[in-house]
C-alpha cells in the first residue's frame, strides 16, 4: 500500500507537535490553592482530545488515496474551501459586532445567517432557520446566564446586565 504526503498529513503532524509543546508547557501551570482541581486539568483534557483527533487525521490522511484533480491553483482552492471560509468570515463578523449586538442578538443573527447561507438560502426556509437560531441561542444564553451565572456581553442595543 503506497502512502502519499499531503496537506492533511502535514497539518496533522503540525498539530501533533503543537499539542506536544503545549502539553509539556501545561505541567508548568501554577497550582492554586482555591480550587478542587489543579489548574492544568482542563488544558490537558482539551489538548489530549486535540491530540487524539490530530492522530486520527494523520492516519486517515496517510491511508487516503490521492483525490483526482487535486490542486488547480487559488480558484480551485477557494471553491473547495468555500464553506469553511464563509464560516470563518461570519464568525469574525460576529466577534466584531459583539460589543454592539451582544451575545444574544449577535448569536441569533450569526446562526440565522450561517444556516441561511450554508443551507441554500431559500426564502421558504427562513422561518425555520429563525426558529432554530432563536431557540438554540436563546437556550444557550439562558443556561449560561441563569444556571451557570456567567456574564455574557449584553451589547449596546439590548443591555441585559
Structural topology:
Elements: H1 7-26, H2 41-63, H3 73-80, H4 82-118, H5 126-147
Helix pairs in contact: 1-2, 4-5
Count up the domains. Answer: 2
SSE class: mainly alpha
Q: Kindly provide the radius of gyration, computed on alpha-carbon positions and rounded to a whole number of angstroms.
A: 21 Å
Largest β-sheet summary: none
Helix count, DSSP H or I runs of 4 or more residues = 5
Give the quaternary arrangement of the chains: single chain
Output the helix-strand order: HHHHH
What percentage of amino acids are in beta strands?
under 5%
Proportion of helical residues: 55-70%
Distance between the termini: 60 Å
Morphology call:
flat
Q: Please tell me the overall pLDDT.
A: 84
Task: Name the poorly predicted regions.
Answer: none
User: How many DSSP E strands?
Assistant: 0
